[in-house]
Structure formats: C-alpha cells, structure tokens
Amino acid sequence: MKTLQVFNIYQQYGGEENVVRTLSRLMEGEDWRDMFFESRAWANESFLGKLSQPGRTFWNSAALRQMDDVQREYEADVWLFHNVLPVGSLGLFHRARKLGVPVIQYLHNYRPFSVAGTAWHEGHFLEGGFKQRFWPEVKAGTYRGSRLQTLFMSLVLRAYFKTGAVNAVTMWLSQTAFQKAKYVQAGIPAERVEVMAPPREEAPAPVNWNDDGYLLFLGRLVPEKGIRFLLERWERAAQDGKTKLPRLLIAGAGPLEEEVKRRVGGLKDVSYVGEVNATERTRLLEGCSGLVVPSEWWEVFGLVVVEAYEMEKPVVAARVGGLGEIVTAGKTGFQFEAGDGEGLEQAVSDLMKCTQEERRELGRNGRRWVREEMNVERWKERYGRLVQKTVALKRDEMANRQGRIMDRSLLQVSIPSAE
Questions:
Q1: Where are the alpha helices (DSSP H) in 100-146?
Q2: 27-to-64, 122, 384, 390 alpha-carbon distances in Å
C-alpha cells in the first residue's frame, strides 16, 4: 500500500524533521512519496502576502491544489501527517475527509492538546489543553514567548476540533507508551493509538571510547530541558563544599545561552563548550562517563539518549515522560525524579561509583536496546501492519456512514398501503 508523507518544514532544522528525513531515506521506493511544504516560503512573501497568512493557516487553497495534484497522480492509500501548519493548513484534514483518504498522525509532541506542544511552562505542567482549554497557555505565552501568537495558535487548534478536522485522523502514531496515555487521557480511543519507537539504522561501534570522568549535557538551552536545575545543583555543591560532583560539560545553544555562560563563569567544575557540530558531538560523547538528561517537561522520546547508547555510554535521566521508558535504572543508567536535586546527586553518585568497565556495560546494554527497539526492518513490518489496519478502519467507517445515510433516506420514503 502507498503512503504519502506530509510535512511542513520549519525554518530551523529540529528533531521532527530528522525523523521525517530518516523515514524518507529508509522507506524510499514506489510505495512511499513525500509532500513537503516550507515555512520559509511564507517568510519571503511580500507585506500583502503576509497579511493573508493567518487566514491561509486555516485554509490554503494553493496547498490543497498541490495535494489534489499529487493524490490524483500517486493515488496514495494513506496520508502520514507530521506537522502540516502553517503552509499546509487545516484544510488538508478536510481534504482527506472529502477524498476518503485515511490519515495517520505521527506524534512528535503533545499538540493538538498543547499550543506549544510541551504542555509545560516555567516549572508547571499545563494540562488544560487535554480538555481543549488553552487559556492557561495563552496567558503564559508558551508559543514563541508571545501571548498574541499563542492566542492565534489556540484559535487554530480550537478550529481543528470544532470543524471536525480531527475526525480525519484514523490512527495516531505515538513514540512511547507515556505519550499514548496522555492522548487517551484527552479522549482519543486507546485502540486508535499505536506505539512505535522511531526507526534508526544501526550505528558503527565507537572507535575512540574513553572515560575521562566528566558528565555531558547535550541539548537545547531552554528551560524545559532542565539546564537551570542542573546548574543550580553544581552551584550548591560548590558553595557547601561537601557534595562531590564530577566535572560537567555543557554543549548546545538556545535562548538561555547568555545565562549559561554567566553562571558557568563562576564554577570551576563546569565548562560551556557552545554549540557543536556532528564531529565534536561524537568526540564529547566518546569521552564522557555518562550523559545527563535533567528534563522537566514530559520528554516524548529523547534522541540524545539514543546517541549516548550508540557510543556505549550510560545515561542519568529524569524519570519523566518517555525518558522513563528508554532509560532503565541499573541496566542502562540511573534515574531520579524530575526537579529532585538530592535524587540527581544520588543518581550521579551511583554512576560514578561504578568502574569504567561497569559504566561501559551499562552503555552496551543501551546499545542493545536501540538495536532491538528501533530496528529498521521491525519498524517497516509494524508500519505495514499499521497501514493495513488504518485502511480497514477507514473502509469500515465509510461503510457505516453510508449505511446511516441509507437508513435516514429509507425513513423518509412512504410505504404504499396494501389497498
């Protein structure tokens, strides 16, 4: 069966696009085609064009014509949606319903039940969206740090539900059981949510494996990743002189970069190395004693954990969201409750008490987990079954709908009397 993968490319490359590009490469063939829209196209429009962009986020006729042309030529059996806003528009969901094409929605975060996708802001979970109450996020300005933009996106999501666009989705593809549970909490039937870790080609074994005694933070410098919490614990340890924490290297970029530079300047056991390229990223992972992931939001999956495992490195991670499923305490690393400073220190202590060989064995266990849970061929088989299930469900839905229409028509027909 044929899949048409649909994605609106963001202006900046991120984890979602990484998954999309990986699927394109792994699934390339006659049964797979991509349909991409680009936010950059709107960024370069004239002033008059920009004025119409909010309306086109709801219904973009040009994008729908493109989809019609591709579908007419390719005749896909299913559309695999990632993010389709703003250029693709909500109209794509309505077009799928009109054409009777089933949609599988790939879940990368918690949208459409969170405006920003994280359901988190400044240390607090904002769960109103799971009941379609978006005002708390609007008030906090969670989307791009702007109340106005958050308000607009909340209106888009309201329209997604109120106009029935959500009903175009036949199946939801979740990356972890935790993520699935949140969607079920929001009212999505459990049988309509499939859990599949993203596929990943097996990486070569590490060439220069070392254990140089430092912990590594690798990621975006944003509040939800727990970077402030992490720095606070190292600052506290430096002040009390009693708690012994290993050297910490921080790599990445983001809105909190200047704050991180300032705070690191006063700590002798913490270094900030800035944003790193792929080669530097590998070198840092090869030399660390372990990766530390102090996320505070419901992390969906955490590809940085996978990267550490591929380098045969253990992980110290907050037990939050999907991280609780991909890091196993005592087997692939150690865990602590999100925001629990003493728990973090204990987990770090447990890791550093291990010998180098014991830490490497934890990392090897992680590598085995990646090989088993993210196996490409296994993913292809499961995805094939998912497509068949989705098409069958859509066929049944359409048959039931047609049956209800026929029943209503019969009720309006008068039966001639026997006389």
A1: 135-140
A2: 25, 39, 11, 18
- Whether 214-373 and 3-199+385-403 are alike in CATH topology: the answer is yes
Is the domain 3-199+385-403 a CATH 2.40.50 member?
no
Ramachandran area for residue 407 (φ above 0: left; ψ -120 to 50: alpha; else beta): alpha
Which among 111, 62, 112 has a CA at the least distance from the CA of 91?
62
- 214-373: CATH number: 3.40.50.2000
Residue 82 has pLDDT above 50, yes or no: yes
Residue reference for tokens 């993520």: 179
Q: Mean pLDDT over all residues of the chain?
A: 94
How many residues can be counted in the chain?
A: 419
For the full predicted model, state whether its pTM sits above 0.90: yes
Q: Where does the pLDDT of residue 392 fall: very low under 50, low under 70, confident under 90, or very high at 90 and above?
A: very high
End-to-end Cα, the chain, rounded Å: 55
Per-residue pLDDT tens digits for 40-71: 989 889 998 999 999 999 999 999 999 999 99
- The pair of structure tokens assigned to 307 is 């990267």
By CB atoms closer than 10 A (0-12, 13-18, 19+), residue 391 is middle
